[in-house]
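Budget justification note: compute hours in this period were largely spent on complex prediction jobs such as the one shown. Inputs:
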Amino acid sequence: KAGVTQTPRYLIKTRGQQVTLSCSPISGHRSVSWYQQTPGQGLQFLFEYFSETQRNKGNFPGRFSGRQFSNSRSEMNVSTLELGDSALYLCASSLNRAGYTFGSGTRLTVV
Amino acid sequence: AQRVTQPEKLLSVFKGAPVELKCNYSYSGSPELFWYVQYSRQRLQLLLRHISRESIKGFTADLNKGETSFHLKKPFAQEEDSAMYYCALFNLQGAQKLVFGQGTRLTINP
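Corresponding output:
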């Protein structure tokens, strides 16, 4: 079966712009989580969506938001981009907390 | 606070030698622990989880609640084991999420 698909793979944006990242989970998985990966901070939890509702949220500013659609696909939005937002953004889907399947990520570069 | 510590950022061993990647955690309650691996240019993938007690690619990990550790071991390293390894804890308190360690880059020398 298809894995977790993230688009686009790469993005270059300018400071102050906004960006939207997309994640399609494994079929049947209703939970989608987002993580930010940077060399300095490692993997940090952004938020989790389940059945179109944000179920959990990490310690990120309000510029980071997301949503989930009825088909479980999820989008993450970052507004007013800052240089420090440059990172690999990972999406993970799960059927239950027994294991998360990660996508390949979207590498965002803010210039 | 829930925390996962991987004390070694880099670990280098020779092919055929034993490997141990250290992981310590702080968590009040019964933790659910995982090891994830990221090979070069590949996505992060689950290697093993403590509740299943299975061995994957020759790796095992034992949960030691007394020492709050979940070290990853393999008796004989292979070159294809070179990768980034992350220990993770599933947090059930507050925001339910995976809490990752900083990772250990394992290099197997021929």
